[in-house]
Each structure stands twice: as C-alpha cells, then as structure tokens.
Write a structure and sequence with these properties.
It is a single chain. Helices cover 10% and strands 45% of the residues. It has 2 helices and 17 strands. The protein has helices at 209-218, 246-264; strands at residues 7-16, 19-29, 31-33, 45-50, 60-67, 72-77, 81-83, 92-100, 105-109, 113-115, 120-129, 134-142, 156-165, 168-177, 195-202, 225-231, 236-243. A hairpin with a 2-residue loop joins strand 13 and strand 14 (168-177). Helix 1 (209-218) crosses helix 2 (246-264). The protein is globular and about 55 Å long. The model has no long low-confidence stretch (mean pLDDT 94).
C-alpha cells in the first residue's frame, strides 16, 4: 500500500452460502475500521473511522471497498468529514475507490463535509460496477465552521464523483465550491441555504415510476428547503437537497433511501445513527 497516505482502509466482502462475509480488513495510519455492527436483516455493516476526528492540512486518505459477486454490504463514515484549517495553502485529499462485481450491492453512506475556516479539500470517489451490480452512494457539503459563526469562510472544496456501470460512464459529477470567488447565495449555488446532500442510486432495473413513487412518499414530509429527484441517462436516479440544517436534510435523505430499500429492494428499514431523525 502506498505509504504517502496518512490513512488507508481496504475492505472486501464475498457471498458464502446465504451470507455475505468480510474477507479483507486492512487499515493503516490514522484510519480505522469498526467491528461488525448488527443490522435487522443481517447485512454486514462497518464504520470507517478517522482517529483524529478530522483531517489536518495536507493529509491524504485512501479508502477501498470491494464486493465480490452477489455480496451485499453497508459502509459508512462514523462522523461528518471535518476539514481543519489550511493556513499554509496545502490541500487535504481523500480518495474513495469502489468495486461492485456481478449482482453485488453496496450501500456506501459518506457523511457530509464540514470545512473549517480557510480549509482546502479535494475528494474523489470512483465506483466501478459490473453487470447486475447496485450502489447507493451519498455525500454532502455544509456552509462550514468558523469561530465567528460566519458561513462559507473556507477557501475551496472539490467533490468529484465518477461511476461506471458495465464499463459505461453513467454518472460524472464535479462540485466545485470556491467562496473566495463566488457569492454562495447566488442561484445555482447554495441560494441562501447552508446544507447540501445528495444520494445516487445505481440499479439496472430502474424505471421512472420509482421517481414518481419516491416523490409521493417525500411530499408527505415536513421540510424547510428544496430538493429534486432526477433520472440518470441510464440505470439510476439521484436526489439532491438544499436545506437549512443537517437534521432536516438527513430526514429527507433517509426517507428516500429507505423508500428504495423497503419498497424496491424488499429490505428492512435502516437507521445508522440516533440523530438521523
């Protein structure tokens, strides 16, 4: 493993009989992987942990997840990704790489990024999904943290996500936020809101009726903000949310995820944290 990284996690799963089992759990540096966490439907769940509680200027982290044929697993970060100040202008990096093989299903819940004042952060997430594979992938970005409570005092955040399905590019998203150069209240940016979250679902069985049904489910919820659900050109759909608090955003996000899990996949309701609602 490349020693230039300050933290590395490498985790893999395979299907044995009627169960998915962990086959590799490697970690180094400031990265940790939790013990197995029970779920109602016995899907293996693990938390990815940064021991420092956040990322320090110039640090680099590398997370790898591999699901072999027919496996189903859940991964999530333990807390939001706090990006500490970068007073020397050095960028903090995180690279996430995912391989989902034939008919496997990975749920990868990456928490939102909370950049501190003067933070500079680049995150790249790459997923390679083979025929029949499925993926739920989340991420998000907030107005950040500063001692004065003034929002958007970080320098720059780049969140890049690229997903291949059966060797075809199906999702290529690059969110660049630079409060030094842009008015974050403008149309097309945060528009007066402070919290952004997204959920991408890749499933070759996708049909537009799923969007109609998920909208009907979400429209019954109390929410102060805006959100939209759109189809990808192929094999999936995406939810994007702008709101005034992480709590409210997560409520809509998890209603959407659990609609898919319960109504489409026939799985049980999933709650990862007490503060989801």
């Amino acid at each position: 493993m490349n020693r230039s990284y300050d933290g590395v996690s490498d985790i893999a799963f395979e299907k044995r009989g009627d169960r998915t089992v962990l086959t590799n759990r490697y970690r180094s540096g400031n990265s940790r992987i939790s013990a197995l966490i029970p779920t109602e439907d016995d899907t293996p769940l693990y938390f990815l942990v940064a021991t420092g509680g956040g990322f320090i200027e110039g640090e680099k982290y590398y997370n790898i997840a591999t699901l072999e044929k027919d496996a189903h697993a859940i991964l999530t970060t333990q807390t939001p990704n706090y990006i500490y100040k970068c007073p020397n202008g050095k960028t903090t990096y995180q690279l996430n790489e995912v391989m989902v093989k034939e008919n496997a299903f990975l749920e990868y819940y990456i928490d939102e990024v909370i950049p501190y004042e003067d933070a500079i952060y680049y995150q790249k997430t790459f997923a390679d999904i083979k025929k029949g594979g499925s993926l739920i992938l989340t991420d998000g970005l907030t107005a950040g943290w500063s001692k004065s409570d003034t929002p958007f005092l970080y320098n720059k955040v780049d969140l890049k996500t690229k997903i291949l399905y059966d060797n075809e590019l199906v999702f290529n998203d690059y969110l660049i936020v630079d409060p030094r150069e842009e008015d974050m209240g403008e149309l097309g940016l945060f528009e007066g809101y402070t919290n952004f979250n997204s959920v991408v679902i890749i499933d070759e069985n996708f049909c537009t009726d799923w969007i109609k049904r998920s909208k009907e489910a979400l429209n019954t919820k109390d929410f102060e903000g805006i959100y939209g659900i759109t189809a990808l050109e192929k094999y999936g759909f995406v939810l994007r949310i702008l709101g005034r608090s992480s709590h409210n955003n997560l409520g809509i996000m998890w209603d959407f995820i659990n609609f898919y899990r319960e109504e489409i996949r026939g799985l049980k309701h999933l709650e990862l944290r007490k503060n989801q609602r």
